[in-house]
């Protein structure tokens, strides 16, 4: 494995652990679900609320949106960048693909 995968090869200890788990009857190669809160904040409703706030004031800050909606800044940033498909240009959120209306 080391000659093929080089630096990304798993350690001998990890391979032993996997072999033991499969000998005990494990059939899946996927990770088990981890404990903790699932991310349920990213909903269509929150995306619409954030979009409305950003369009009303393009200079609004992430912490201000997070405070209004009672969600974390990280989730607000994720919604703005990944779900609304915008990026920050000159302290203003601008869509990545501009329509002719947006260009005006």
Automatic annotation (TrEMBL):
It comes from the Eukaryota. InterPro entries: Transposase-MT_Hybrid. This is Mos1 transposase HTH domain-containing protein.
């Amino acid at each position: 494995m080391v000659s093929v995968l080089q630096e990304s090869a798993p350690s001998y200890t990890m391979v032993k652990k996997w072999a033991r788990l499969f000998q005990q009857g494990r059939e899946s190669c996927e990770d088990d679900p981890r404990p903790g809160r699932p991310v349920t904040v990213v909903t269509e409703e929150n995306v619409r609320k954030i979009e409305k706030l950003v369009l009303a004031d393009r200079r609004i800050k992430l912490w201000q949106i997070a405070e209004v909606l009672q969600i974390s800044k990280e989730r607000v940033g994720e919604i703005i960048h990944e779900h609304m498909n915008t990026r920050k240009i000159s302290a203003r959120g601008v869509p990545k693909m501009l329509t002719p209306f947006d260009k005006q």
